[in-house]
């Protein structure tokens, strides 16, 4: 896969980059991109979201669908993929080299991604081993997504079966408490766990993992993708050995 991205994403403002990542996340969740959703995800007013969306439309990064919802243009999707790829590289660096936790590294990567030059980005990629996903298992671009299995929601897994944690979706990444909980329970991509219970009456999923019994609500569990049984280890990025 080529990593020769156009430099345009590096020149976008921090706000523009955040909105493009948010639009990418909404699209990845198979939801229409609307001003209301952008405002909710970005925790801003609808007016602020509308103004930024208008700016991105003028820049050719967002467009309108036939039903007036927003869509990422081809240029917008390429820019969003490039930004997400740079964000993912920073997360690998911050978690595996510097030693920050998932939630903290996500916040720091958001701050740093606007300042990383193409030269530094290439150096980080070489250091962390050219990953095809972020540390949470989300594909860095559409090419990687097409090559990888989709997985099923943890909330749909059969009780009594063994599953491999596959990816923590981008929507789930927005929940810092959930990220911290999953990391503390070692429920990270590549981890094998046994589904103990999926209960609509209790609104909970229970599974046995590396640290013992873990429980979460059906909603968070629906944002976590798993693969039945023990998945192929090649699906999960491993950092190169360092001297």
Structure notes:
There is one protein chain. By secondary structure, this protein is α+β, with helices and mostly antiparallel strands. It folds into 3 domains: 69 residues, Winged helix-like DNA-binding domain superfamily/Winged helix DNA-binding domain (Arc Repressor Mutant, subunit A, Orthogonal Bundle), CATH 1.10.10; 53 residues, Winged helix-like DNA-binding domain superfamily/Winged helix DNA-binding domain (Arc Repressor Mutant, subunit A); 84 residues, Ferrous iron transport protein A (FeoA) (SH3 type barrels). The chain is built from 11 helices and 8 strands. Strand 6 and strand 7 form a beta hairpin. The longest helix has 25 residues. The protein is globular.
Topology:
Layout: H1 8-11, H2 14-28, H3 35-42, H4 46-58, E1 62-64, E2 70-72, H5 74-98, H6 102-112, H7 118-128, H8 142-147, E3 152-153, E4 162-168, H9 170-173, H10 176-184, E5 192-199, E6 204-209, E7 212-216, H11 218-222, E8 224-228
Number of helices: 11
Q: How many separate domains?
A: 3
Globular, elongated, flat, extended or rod-shaped: what is the shape? globular
Question: Which value, in Å, is the CA radius of gyration?
Answer: 18 Å
What is the CATH fold-level name of the largest domain?
Answer: SH3 type barrels
Let me know the largest β-sheet: 6 strands, antiparallel
The top level CATH class name of the largest domain: Mainly Beta
Termini separation: 27 Å
N-to-C series of helices and strands: HHHHEEHHHHEEHHEEEHE
What is the tally of beta strands?
Answer: 8
Provide the low-confidence segments as ranges.
1-7
In CATH terms, the superfamily of the largest domain is Ferrous iron transport protein A (FeoA)
CATH architecture label of the largest domain: Roll
Which class of secondary structure composition applies to the elements?
alpha+beta
- On the 0 to 100 scale, the average pLDDT is 91
Strand order of the largest sheet: 3-8-4-5-6-7
């Amino acid at each position: 896969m080529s990593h020769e991205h156009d430099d345009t994403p590096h020149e976008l403002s921090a706000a523009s980059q955040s909105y493009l990542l948010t639009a990418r996340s909404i699209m990845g969740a198979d939801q229409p991109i609307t001003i209301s959703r952008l405002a909710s995800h970005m925790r801003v007013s609808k007016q602020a979201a509308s103004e930024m969306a208008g700016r991105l439309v003028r820049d050719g990064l967002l467009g309108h669908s036939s039903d007036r919802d927003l869509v990422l243009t081809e240029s917008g999707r390429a820019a969003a993929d490039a930004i997400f790829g740079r964000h993912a590289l920073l997360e690998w660096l911050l978690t595996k080299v510097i030693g920050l936790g998932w939630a903290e590294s996500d916040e720091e990567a958001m701050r740093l991604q606007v300042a990383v030059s193409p030269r530094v980005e290439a150096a980080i990629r070489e250091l962390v081993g050219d990953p095809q996903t972020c540390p949470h298992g989300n594909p860095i671009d559409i090419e990687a997504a097409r090559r990888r299995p989709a997985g099923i929601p943890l909330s749909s897994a059969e009780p009594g079966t063994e599953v491999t944690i596959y990816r923590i979706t981008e929507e789930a990444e927005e929940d810092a408490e959930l990220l911290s909980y999953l990391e503390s329970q070692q429920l990270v991509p590549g981890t094998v766990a046994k589904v103990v219970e999926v209960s609509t009456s209790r609104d909970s999923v229970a599974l046995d993992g590396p640290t013992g019994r873990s429980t979460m609500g059906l909603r968070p569990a629906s944002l976590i993708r798993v693969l039945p049984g023990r998945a192929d280890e090649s699906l999960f990025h491993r950092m190169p050995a360092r001297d």
